[in-house]
Automatic annotation (TrEMBL):
Pfam families: DnaT. Coiled coil: none annotated. It comes from the Bacteria. Gene3D superfamilies: 1.10.8.1180. Residues 144-154 have a biased composition (Low complexity). This is DnaT DNA-binding domain-containing protein. Residues 133-143 have a biased composition (Basic and acidic residues). Residues 160-229 form the DnaT DNA-binding domain. Residues 133-154, 227-262 are annotated as: Disordered.
Length: 262
């Protein structure tokens, strides 16, 4: 266990994933954030690497008090369920002892730099970015190199509103297909067109990677809803059909008063 606090970014409050979970669970945004902290805090306190092989989604749903909450986290890529094991993606970046040490180091460096001011620039600890472990800087550099601008004139991290002609690119969409459980065949031209049409009428801005994740999550939700509404068992005929062609007096003996008896 890594302590009695967890790393939380203020930007999380307005992330589209939070809005989607609120919509799916039919609860307000603040409630979603509180329940997410509840789940993340549980993983931080009870696991070493963000894996919970002996815990079910039902148990975690009971922990937060909302049925299906963990399924909603899975649908937006914030929870992974594979081979019966539930885990938090990128756990080591935000939770655990190592991640917390990185955060504390960064805060100390920033505080020290601010306190000393520009007059002692020669004696100040290297900038905040230099205080981070080489492994994390290397990983960030690789991610930037592997995520070229998928659309002409738009950088990979640049936020933009949805527009006609937008399309996902293989590099940005690949990790979300894997994490959310959607196949490439499901990303059809029709699905993309409906997605673009919907978001063109909304006041929202995301970068290319976020838009790709939104698309995959949307396809996954539609697939789940379609499966839920087509639950009728095929090949089963109702016992209440063809009644108009049946004789209701068949097998009965008529009485003199117009009634019938067996």
């Amino acid at each position: 266990m890594a302590g009695d606090w967890i790393k939380f970014e203020l930007a999380t409050l307005d992330k589209p994933e939070v809005c989607q979970i609120a919509d799916l669970a039919n609860i307000d945004l603040d409630a979603v954030v509180g329940k997410l902290l509840r789940v993340w805090g549980w993983f931080d306190q009870q696991t070493e690497q963000g894996n919970a092989p002996s815990v079910t989604k039902k148990l975690l749903d009971r922990l937060v008090g909302v049925i299906g909450f963990c399924d909603h986290m899975v649908s937006v890529g914030w929870l992974i369920e594979a081979d019966g094991v539930i885990s938090i993606p990128n756990f080591d970046r935000h939770n655990g002892k190592t991640a917390k040490n990185r955060s504390l180091t960064a805060l100390r460096v920033a505080s020290h730099k601010k306190t000393n001011g520009k007059g002692n620039a020669a004696n100040v600890t290297p900038p905040l970015a230099d205080a981070l472990p080489k492994e994390e800087k290397r990983r960030d550099k690789e991610q930037q190199q592997q995520a070229p601008a998928p659309i002409a004139g738009i950088e990979a991290r640049q936020r933009f509103e949805m527009f006609e002609g937008w399309a996902p690119d293989e590099v940005s969409i690949a990790p979300h297909l894997k994490l959310i459980g959607v196949t490439a065949d499901q990303v059809t031209k029709q699905a993309i067109a409906e997605f673009v049409s919907y978001w063109m009428t909304r006041d929202a801005s995301h970068n290319q990677g976020s838009w790709c994740r939104e698309l995959v999550a949307s396809i996954h939700r539609n697939a789940v809803r379609t499966a839920a509404t087509s639950g009728a068992r095929p090949g089963r005929t109702s016992q209440h059909t063809g009644l108009a062609n049946q004789d209701p007096h068949a097998g009965l003996e008529a009485n003199a008063d117009g009634t019938f008896q067996l």
